[in-house]
Specification:
The chain is α+β, with helices and mostly antiparallel strands. Helices cover about 25% and strands about 20% of the residues. It contains 6 helices and 5 strands, in the order βααααβαβαββ. The chain is globular.
Length: about 190
C-alpha cells in the first residue's frame, strides 16, 4: 500500500520493502468503510484505523477501501494481497461477526463466478469439547450450507491430547459432463458486483 507514496520515498527508507508474504488475522474488520460509518462501531477501534491510515480516514474513504479485504475482492484486486487467513468467532465484543460473514459471502460469490463447483473445509474437531477446541467451526460451516463428508480420528496432537479432523463440503453448482473452465480471479476484475 505504501509503494510510490512520497512520504516513504526518503533516504531513511531506502532498501526497505512493504511487501508482506502472508497475513493471519484474528477477529479482523473485513470492511472498514462499513465499520467506520457504523455509529455502533467501537471508537477505540476507529481511532486505531484512523492512525493507521495517516489520519485521513474521515476525508478519504478510498484509504479504507484499500485496507479492506472485502473491497479488494469486490474490485478484483485480491491478487495484489498476500494470502490471508482470517479467524473470527461470534463472541468478539469489538468487531461484529457479520464482518467475517460478509467476506465469506463475497468469496463464495467470486468462487461461483469462477465456475468453481465445490468448496471444501478441513476442520479440527474434538471428541469432547475442551478449553482449546469446540464444535463451533463445524456448526458455522453447517450453517453456511456445508455438509459433513468424513472424519479422521485422532490424527492431530496438540495441548497434550488427540483431536480429530473432519471434512465438510458445499456444492456450488451442477456437476455436468462438460464442466466450464475455471476462470482465474484476475480475469474477473471489475465484472463482479457484490
Amino acid at each position: 500500500m505504501t509503494e510510490g507514496e512520497e512520504r516513504y520515498i526518503t533516504e531513511e527508507y531506502q532498501g526497505y520493502s512493504d511487501r508482506v508474504d502472508y497475513v493471519a488475522a484474528c477477529f479482523p474488520t473485513t470492511d472498514l468503510v462499513e465499520y467506520m460509518l457504523d455509529d455502533g462501531g467501537e471508537q477505540e477501534i476507529k481511532d486505531i484505523f484512523t492512525a493507521l491510515s495517516g489520519g485521513i480516514v474521515d476525508e478519504e474513504m478510498s484509504v479504507l477501501k484499500e485496507m479492506s479485504p472485502y473491497h479488494r475482492v469486490q474490485e478484483g484486486l485480491l491478487t495484489e494481497y498476500p494470502p490471508l487467513l482470517i479467524a473470527h468467532g461470534d463472541a468478539d465484543e469489538l468487531i461484529p461477526h457479520n464482518q467475517s460473514l460478509k467476506l465469506y459471502e463475497a468469496l463464495e460469490k467470486v468462487s461461483r463466478a469462477q465456475n468453481i463447483l465445490n468448496l471444501n473445509a478441513c476442520i479440527g474437531y474434538p471428541e469432547a469439547e475442551d478449553e482449546y477446541l469446540t464444535g463451533n467451526s463445524v456448526q458455522f460451516h453447517g450453517h453456511m450450507g456445508y455438509r459433513m463428508v468424513g472424519e479422521f480420528h485422532k490424527c492431530g496432537y496438540k495441548f497434550g491430547r488427540w483431536y480429530n479432523m473432519v471434512w465438510m463440503e458445499k456444492l456450488l453448482g451442477e456437476h455436468g459432463e462438460n464442466p466450464k473452465e475455471v476462470i482465474p480471479f484476475p480475469a474477473l476484475a471489475g465484472h463482479i458486483e457484490l
